[in-house]
């Protein structure tokens, strides 16, 4: 039996040494990487942004106040809403199109509030009001961008007073669509 015990202890001692050797490896301090880099990226896509403050109208085209007996053409320039701003990524090709409005028949019209009388008008993309700058119904018009953070829409109008218009407030509502 003593031989058996001696063999067991001898064999067990080897196992004990192996086990203590494994513990010794675990007790050594591990080498760690303390800094590492990583990559960041972003893709900026071309686009435009309309930022609104108070109100929601893009602006106004006000022809002014005239006698119902006036028979002539009157012009006006688009005045943007001060609480709105239009900005685009530099290099964007911006265009706009304008629908026919609420009272379109064969041309754009303003209609008297509370009535059916109309005053026809035309829109242009140049202050010269040249025929080749007339803005057709839903036809794209290029918008030049001087300052990509403060874009002005080139909209000018001419209303035709017929001399037969009853007194009142004449209005229309247009939708402008911007594309890029």
UniProtKB/TrEMBL annotation:
Superkingdom classification of source: Bacteria
Chain ranges of the Spore coat protein U/FanG domain: 36-177
Pfam families noted in UniProt: SCPU
Segment forming the signal sequence: none
SMART domains documented for this protein: SCPU (SM00972)
UniProt cross-references to InterPro entries, sorted A to Z: Spore_coat_component, Spore_coat_U/FanG
Name of the molecule in the record: Fimbrial major subunit CsuA/B family protein
Organism listed in the record: Intestinirhabdus alba
């Amino acid at each position: 039996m003593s031989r058996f015990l001696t063999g067991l202890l001898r064999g067990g001692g080897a196992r004990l040494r192996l086990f203590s050797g494994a513990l010794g490896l675990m007790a050594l301090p591990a080498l760690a990487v303390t800094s590492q880099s990583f990559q960041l990226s972003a893709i900026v896509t071309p686009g435009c942004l309309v930022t609104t403050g108070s109100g929601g109208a893009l602006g106004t085209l006000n022809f002014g106040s005239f006698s119902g007996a006036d028979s002539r053409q009157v012009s006006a320039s688009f005045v943007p809403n001060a609480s709105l701003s239009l900005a685009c990524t530099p290099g964007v090709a911006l265009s706009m199109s304008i629908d026919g409005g609420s009272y379109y028949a064969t041309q754009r019209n303003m209609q008297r509030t509370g009535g059916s009388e109309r005053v026809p008008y035309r829109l242009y993309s140049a202050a010269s009001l040249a025929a080749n700058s007339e803005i057709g119904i839903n036809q794209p018009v290029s918008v030049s961008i001087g300052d990509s953070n403060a874009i002005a829409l080139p909209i000018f109008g001419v209303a035709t007073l017929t001399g037969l218009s009853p007194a009142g407030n004449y209005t229309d509502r247009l939708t402008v669509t911007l594309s890029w």
